[in-house]
Known about the structure:
The chain is an all-alpha fold. It has one domain (2-451): Hydantoin permease. 75% of the residues lie in helices and 0% in strands. It is built from 20 helices and no strands. α3 (27-39) crosses α14, α10 crosses α14 and α18 runs antiparallel to α20. It is globular, with a radius of gyration of 21 Å. The termini are far apart.
Amino acid sequence: xxxxxxxxxxxxxxxxxxxxxxxxxxxxxxxxxxxxxxxxxxxxxxxxxxxxxxxxxxxxxxxxxxxxxxxxxxxxxxxxxxxxxxxxxxxxxxxxxxxxxxxxxxxxxxxxxxxxxxxxxxxxxxxxxxxxxxxxxxxxxxxxxxxxxxxxxxxxxxxxxxxxxxxxxxxxxxxxxxxxxxxxxxxxxxxxxxxxxxxxxxxxxxxxxxxxxxxxxxxxxxxxxxxxxxxxxxxxxxxxxxxxxxxxxxxxxxxxxxxxxxxxxxxxxxxxxxxxxxxxxxxxxxxxxxxxxxxxxxxxxxxxxxxxxxxxxxxxxxxxxxxxxxxxxxxxxxxxxxxxxxxxxxxxxxxxxxxxxxxxxxxxxxxxxxxxxxxxxxxxxxxxxxxxxxxxxxxxxxxxxxxxxxxxxxxxxxxxxxxxxxxxxxxxxxxxxxxxxxxxxxxxxxxxxxxxxxxxx
Length: 457
């Protein structure tokens, strides 16, 4: 297969697992999961999320990996192989990472700013009341107290790494930094368990309150799954195209899901109880700023907190980089495969898009705050349009193509082509034809109605 030979690759199964997990483990776990868990009821959100991971999530990851490996192509051309009558499918799939990576770089810039402040001994300032809001709204004054230079620095790092290709840019970083982040998260969680008064926050995060169960909770959990497991972003299909034929797709999907879910769980355990403790309430006030308002307070109570703060935000920055690199790589791979561009030229084109859309997200809390599509900042709008609209549509179309057009044997045969048993072979056709599409239709309707302020279920 000529296309595959021209593409990058991974040195082995471990490299693939770490790189794919590195793409999944990032700001979706550290930044997004905790604030959604807080927003949607703590324990009940966690329970719904865990159930969806082992059902919906794993099925979709297996499906996308199989599509990628069988076609040997990026998301655009892979989906076009399944159904070339409707090119709009491929375009939507390509636009998802193209819209996400710019605002992802903005948030990555925030993480970089916090790392830099801890590194120069100014970490205590970050715990001040209102610091985060003043920072993103550009009210602090000073060049490096604005999010703009940090966005540019982070975007530059992402672009430079992608230029060097998959194996050099992603695998090498993931092998070192993923285990380090995991160990640090465990250490911080252990410390959190020793803080007086933390029990109420732990109860809120770990014990489900079924009175808070709603379709909105389901929609929030599924949208987080998209983000955490890199479903319907083009990333998993692209990474599947780099897989070796002898690699076990099903086992790889379980490993990635387990790694990602463990990091998400630990992130929530680290942040949500601390928020409840410091705020004295379970009512969400910080929103997407929860990571940036809570962790400086945690480090402020911790012996050697300044040093831990340096390590945490450094590793968080690199975890974010692995994801933004993968997002950019998903778009670059489309340009290379479909339009036969060189890597450098494709990177230049994507970089222009990152700068334009990223500037909107970066300035949306400050100079452009008066421009609010559907009452949202640009960053919130881009997050809504991708996670609540475009990604469910891409995933739904994928289910329809596999379940009804090429049939589930398309995936089953590819999974079994490595000589490995497909353990969920019996239930897979029912999941991809019925269960997953029903879930996707529900969260698409609920997400759109809620996001546009029409109706909340």
